[in-house]
Amino acid sequence: MKVTEHLRQAKGTLVSFEILPPLKGKTINSIYDHLDPLMEFKPSFINVTYHRAEHIFKKKADSSF
């Protein structure tokens, strides 16, 4: 079901969680370990987002990056 459908059908306050997929080398169990204690709140939906790109800026001798 789409998020917009959940919102349209809501009869009160909706609770949702946004999670990141596991990092490389981690299993889906790492997500379950974090979500299991939160399930008592009965979320209407759980959104899976993505990891943003990580950049490291290093200052060079000429003051540029």
Q: Work out the helicity level.
A: 10-25%
General form: elongated
Distance between the termini: 45 Å
Instruction: Please tally the helical runs, counting DSSP H or I stretches of 4 or more residues.
Output: 2
Report mean pLDDT, rounded to a whole number.
Answer: 84
- Total beta-strand segments: 2
Estimate nothing, just give the exact number of structural domains.
1
Backbone structural class: alpha+beta
Strand order, biggest sheet?
1-2
User: Could you spell the SSE succession in H and E letters?
Assistant: HEHE
Please tell me about this protein's structure.
The chain has one domain (3-48). The protein is built from two helices and two strands, in the order αβαβ. The chain has a two-stranded parallel ribbon. By secondary structure, it is an alpha+beta fold.
